[in-house]
Amino acid sequence: MLLSRYPLFQKAYLVNDLEESVQAWSRLYGAGPFKMTPHHKTDTFMYRGTDTEADVSYAFGYLGDMMIQFIQQHDDKPSIYRDMFRRGEQGYHHVGILVHDFEAEYQRLLDMGYVAACRLYADQVDAAYFDTRAVNGCFTEIHGDPPNILKAFATWKRAHDLWRPGDSPFFKS
């Protein structure tokens, strides 16, 4: 079974400055507004067999039906992000897929021969990054779809649908 039954819902970029990236994408593409998550912490985190968690901040927003995620890593710890980019570098990092049966999809990707480079649990949701760079030039994230996450994503999408040029590019709770 292929992951194609799940549409890509997210494109993610490692950036050097979250606020600058949010403002630039808002001006250029009309993306946003973006929900900022500074210095995100997880409940559990495994990166390539270790429980080392890098200091990262996120910004989440929409461009049409696609979620755009910006990631800023504040330290030089080994991470899923430093696998592709050194400090000062930035670029396209991963695609995200929402999956209903996380464990089945996790096992399916392992069975297909892909390496689970990172697995985490935060905000009542499982997520994992698989190294699919040989296929798509980036990582693939599978992300569980519990009701609390779907509600948050719907709120951010609705804010995007109502957003107009000149509005703040930052999400207001």
Layout: helices, strands, pairs:
Layout: E1 8-14, H1 18-29, E2 35-37, E3 44-47, E4 56-63, E5 66-73, E6 91-99, H2 102-111, E7 115-122, E8 125-131, H3 133-136, E9 139-144, H4 147-162
Task: Sum this structure up briefly.
By secondary structure, this protein is α+β, with helices and mostly antiparallel strands.
Can you give keywords for this protein?
single chain, 173 residues, alpha+beta, 2,3-Dihydroxybiphenyl 1,2-Dioxygenase, domain 1, nine-stranded mixed beta sheet, globular
Please give a structural write-up.
By secondary structure, this protein is of the alpha+beta class. It has a single domain, classed as 2,3-Dihydroxybiphenyl 1,2-Dioxygenase, domain 1, CATH 3.10.180.10. It has a nine-stranded mixed beta sheet. The mean pLDDT is 94.
Silhouette? globular
According to CATH, the homologous superfamily is: 2,3-Dihydroxybiphenyl 1,2-Dioxygenase, domain 1
CATH class: Alpha Beta
Average pLDDT, rounded to a whole number, is 94
Named CATH architecture: Roll
Overall number of strands:
9
Q: Helix amount, in percent?
A: 10-25%
> Whole-number radius of gyration?
16 Å
* Biggest sheet architecture: 9 strands, mixed
CATH topology term: 2,3-Dihydroxybiphenyl 1,2-Dioxygenase, domain 1
Strand/helix succession: EHEEEEEHEEHEH
Termini gap = 39 Å
How large is the count of helical segments?
A: 4
Strand-residue fraction?
Answer: 25-35%
